[in-house]
Design goal:
The structure is a homodimer of 494-residue chains. By secondary structure, chain A is of the alpha/beta class. Chain A folds into two domains: 254 residues, Aldehyde Dehydrogenase, Chain A, domain 1; 175 residues, 3-Layer(aba) Sandwich (Aldehyde Dehydrogenase, Chain A, domain 2), CATH 3.40.309.10. In chain A, 37% of the residues lie in helices and 22% in strands. In chain A, helix 3 runs antiparallel to helix 6 and helix 9 runs parallel beside helix 10.
Chain lengths: 494, 494
């Protein structure tokens, strides 16, 4: 078995051997334990909500240690990681509240009735846990999208045990948070952790696993998607695979707010050293706008920073080389000096008429491409060639309405979230948020952020003419758990 | 191009040449037309609801012709088909009502707020049409699950154009109902029809198609599922592929209600000559119960009937032969006499301890297997080896509670609907219905019957900080279309 090591991106050196790759037998044992734990864990919402709060409290209680560990193996910085831990426990508690509320169960009761289709029997339906879930956390958010991140929190809230595949960028953080969560009282089998690429493939193919949550690269995600689809019993694969996140600046916006847009854009595409899935990767600007030079000037002042690991650094270097061949390098940031996995911000330029598919692929790291358009026709034509993204951003001038409407029309089928006069980085945890989009942004019609993401790990189950005593409490006639339900076509509050 | 012919199952003879197989160019033209029609069709709910009503009215207006055509090429009988047309137009009107109501859009508004995670921008989210949908109707319900059946109605209601693959069992019916629907005013491109197996494969792989609805065989469905998953951009495949529909009769139920259960079971497994996806295919009975002989006696009195087509007849014959090798033939119905694709009811028996996977595969047609169990242990062990089904039925005695609870526990992870003291055939169109289940019952976590099935053809789209004038009316501040929305965490009625 190969060792799983925690590496410090600031030096490139190994800090710790975290463990070794999980073998097929180890994966099997964890998946079987998850299956055994599932029924009891899925049945008791009150206990589950209590456990989620206990996990969030335990994580908050060991904040220093978690932030230190994550910073040491991601170099994302203590401030950012402290904020990310806050987000992590915030979303776990939001899910706990959703579990307590019970509205997510979509309980529906239709009493027996005479209908135009004849007599209808008593029918009661609710959503039930789908079963054990495999979660592949993201490299770039070791906490909020990591082992105890959004996918795990959503699956646990749904009542599904989780087996996490630790991301190789932060195995020590993954191990630590899983240990803390289990120490907070999660029943045996409810939360497991595996290491290694083959263990991940084994996990997706294990008979006990009923769904997969994945955040990562197009190549890795597609390979796992294909494994999930090729199983004897295919399972849903909820993957977020890559996104170019176009930003369009109208001529009026460039004139009115050029300075703000330049500053906001550079801050956004270099945030976390460009390692955001919502990083703006293509920026459409009117040809000849001064904005090009304003952005370049800001990029030249931006320092290099550490990338998450050697693989990310190698990938960024390759992608910058490719972009250099298909576009013009307009500026780069302050050169890298020192050890570790440094990456230097890079700004490229190309004209909309010559932008091809080599340019519209994601570059993971601090690079973006300015795309000059001559007129609205050329702009709309270029937008029509974009792949789908998590986000699409439109910057408009005051009182502009016709051009923005055309832009929205061109972009809405290619995105999961439209951002107006802002920047796409930063994904609020809220009911109205959507993080997803047509392929390759995601492989799913569901969101992966916010409480509605719980729907991915539930399936409907209907009961026909079933005695009250045999029904789940959520569907009993008297509504003993007082959850919101739709009864005979009318929504009833709790 | 091969001819597409309408065949009379009562004679086996060709009645009419309906058309010819649709070539790749023809499929492409229809898919492109669907893509062009999508935006306008998806945007106007009021117009869409009006069109759905117009389609339902037009179908009702040509009831005689539709029932005659369907009966001629399916031999399902005029009474059954008249009822099925009623169901078809009923569900189209139910979807129209859902479209008008707007609750299915799951509109959520979060106003800007200060949260533990910092300032949150204005966020508004709703579900939007996924885009053109390919629908493969079922053989066994030429109307309610046919070209204008549930999948098509759900997709149109969602705002998605549809291209239907006509089922070879009833091409003339498919052509007729599509002509009627288009004649009722559906805009050009909103509803297309293709013929032939290769056209179906082309459809699933066409870039404009964004989802697939399928009802049919495990083999055909799995092949199309795999095509959908292997696309450069995988799309959701909502398939219903096959179901054994176990029925469990407890010793107390067998004693108390043996006569009723025997009569109900034989009526259920021979309904529509056994061509229901919810047909009970395995019936667990206490060993030695008189019920075995009661059921056999009823089967011996049941006449043969026509199967849908020559392919179904051949498949049924093969499957009956296989069952004969792995079980004991207990009884068959009155022998077939006359022309056409006749199929004779067949009743098999096996003991729970020797029931293997050759027995638990679906037999499409009027056959079922009685499985004798010696005791509760043997029964539960056998249930633990069942594949998942659309339904699972439990017959219990008065005041029985412990054994039924064990049965429910054993079956609930293997089914989409639990039926108590009844029979699984007959799927009410209601909000609380669920038609689906773990694979191979379906490939999806969504239902395919009732208004909640609309969710399959929608995806979330979020708007961040977007001017009111650029928002869809459903998300504007004043709620001009008066739809139900969740605003700042509170559900608001229309």
């Amino acid at each position: 078995m190969n060792d799983i090591v925690s590496v410090d991106p600031r030096t490139g050196g190994t800090v710790e051997v975290v463990g070794s790759e999980t073998g097929t037998g180890g994966v099997d044992a964890l998946c079987r334990a998850a299956a055994r734990a599932g029924r009891a864990f899925g049945a008791d919402r009150a206990e589950r909500a209590r456990l989620l709060h206990a996990v969030a409290d335990a994580l908050d209680g060991r904040r220093e240690e978690i932030v230190d560990t994550a910073d040491r193996e991601t170099a994302l910085g203590r401030t950012r990681l402290a904020g990310e831990l806050t987000r992590t426990t915030y979303q776990i508690r939001l899910f706990a509240a959703a579990v307590t509320d019970g509205g997510y169960l979509e309980a529906i009761i239709d009493h027996p009735a005479d209908t135009p289709m004849g007599l209808r029997p008593d029918l009661r339906r609710m959503l039930v846990p789908i079963g054990p879930v495999a979660v592949f956390g993201a490299s770039n958010f070791p906490l909020a999208f990591g082992a105890l991140g959004g996918d795990t929190a959503a699956a646990l809230a749904a009542g599904c045990p989780v087996v996490v595949k630790a991301h190789p960028s932060h195995p020590a953080t993954s191990r630590l948070v899983v240990e803390i969560a289990n120490g907070a009282g999660l029943p045996a089998g409810v939360l497991g952790l595996v290491y290694g690429q083959q263990a991940g493939a084994d996990l997706v193919q294990h008979p006990a696993i009923r769904a997969v949550g994945f955040t990562g690269s197009l190549r890795g995600g597609r390979a796992l998607h294909d494994l999930a689809a090729a199983r004897p019993d295919p399972i849903p694969f909820y993957g977020e695979l890559g996104s170019i996140n176009p930003v369009v600046v109208t001529p009026a916006a460039a004139t009115e707010r050029g300075d703000d847009i330049a500053a906001g854009l550079v801050a956004s595409f270099t945030l976390g050293n460009g390692q955001f899935c919502t990083k703006p990767g293509l920026v459409f600007l009117p040809a000849g706008a001064r904005l090009h030079e304003d952005i370049a000037a800001l990029v030249r002042q931006t320092p290099s920073g550490w990338l998450l690991d050697g693989r990310v650094q190698a990938g960024f270097s390759t992608r910058v080389g490719e972009l250099g061949r298909h576009t013009t390098l307009l500026a780069h940031g302050r050169p890298a000096e020192g050890a570790g996995f440094l990456g230097t911000p890079a700004l490229f330029a190309v004209s909309a008429s010559t932008m091809d598919s080599d340019v519209t692929d994601e570059a993971f790291g601090p690079a973006t491409v300015l795309v000059s358009y001559a007129d609205t026709t050329e702009l709309l034509e270029a937008l029509g060639r974009l792949p789908a993204s998590l986000t699409a951003t439109i910057h408009t001038g005051t009182d502009e309405t016709d051009l923005p409407a055309l832009l929205l029309e061109a972009l809405r089928d290619r995105t999961g979230r439209v951002v107006w006069n802002g920047f796409p980085t930063g994904v609020a945890v809220a009911a109205a948020m959507h993080h997803g989009g047509p392929y390759p942004a995601s492989t799913s019609i569901h969101t992966s952020v916010g409480t509605t993401s719980i729907r991915r790990f539930l399936r409907p189950l209907a009961f026909q003419s079933t005695p009250d005593s045999q029904l789940p409490p959520e569907l009993r006639e008297g509504n003993p758990l007082r959850i919101p339900r739709m009864v005979d076509g009318r929504q009833q509050a709790s």
